[in-house]
Amino acid sequence: MSQLVLSVFPGIDLFGRGFEAEGFCVVRGPDIIYGGDIRTFHPARGRFDGIIGGPPCPDFSRAQRGEPTGYGLEMLAEYRRCVIEADPVWWLMENVSGVPDMIIDGYSHQRIDINASECGLHQNRLRHFQFGHRDGLILTVDRQPPIQDVEPCCVASEGAQLGRRDWLRFCQLQGLPEGIDLPSFTLSARYRAVGNGVPVDMARMLARGILNLRSPEDVRVCECGCGREVEGRARLATVACRKRVSRRRVTVPA
Prior knowledge:
- The chain is α/β, with parallel strands linked by helices.
- It has a single domain (4-144, 200-246), classed as Vaccinia Virus protein VP39 (Rossmann fold), CATH 3.40.50.150.
- The protein is built from six helices and six strands.
- α1 (14-21) packs across α5 (200-211).
- The chain is globular.
C-alpha cells in the first residue's frame, strides 16, 4: 500500500518528485512562490504517514553575509508545528549543515549528510537531513561510491550569474534529465526554483531508505546519526562523523 506523504515548503517540489518516483503518494502544502503561507496552513491529524520538507535556510547558510533575520527559526518552528498537528509516523527535514537540531517530542532523531555525488549525480552538493520516527526505527541510506569528476554545486543564484550553465545541464545536475518546463517563471526564477530543490536522485535514495527502515535491534549505526552502518567496536563511521559529534549543536526552540 502506498504511503501518503505531506510535502511542506515544496517550491516546485523536486523532493516530492523523488518520493513519487519510488511509489509514494505526495500531497503538497502551500508555498510562497504560489502565493501560499505555511503560517495559515493546518494539516489534517492522523492522515499522513510522513512529512517531508525543507524550510528556508539563508539564516543558517555559510553564504549568508548579513545578520540572521529570525525568519529561519520562525520557519523551522512552522515545520515543527505541522509535524505536531499532523502526527505522522515519521518526518524528514532537509536543510544546510548549519541548521539547528530539530528535536520533536515523541520521535527519535537522526542527522544525515548526503552528497549528490553519492547519488549518481555529477555535482558536488552536500545536503543535510534530519529524520524522526515515532517507533524509533532507523533510516539507513545506500550511498554509491562518490563520483570524482563533479561540477560545482547548483545554486539558486546561478541564473543571475555570467557564465551560468545552460538550463538543460543545470536541470540534469539536479536529477531532471529532460529538464523541466516552467513557462510562467523568469529565467532567474527558473534557476532559483530548481537550484533550491533537493536533487531528485537524492530524494529517491532517501525514499528507498524509508521503505526499508530498520529496527535498532537489527542494525548498528554511527552515533553521529548519519545513517551509516558500523561494525565491531566502532562507534563512528568517518572522520567527519567524529567532528560532528564534537561540535555542540543548537536545538530549535520548542
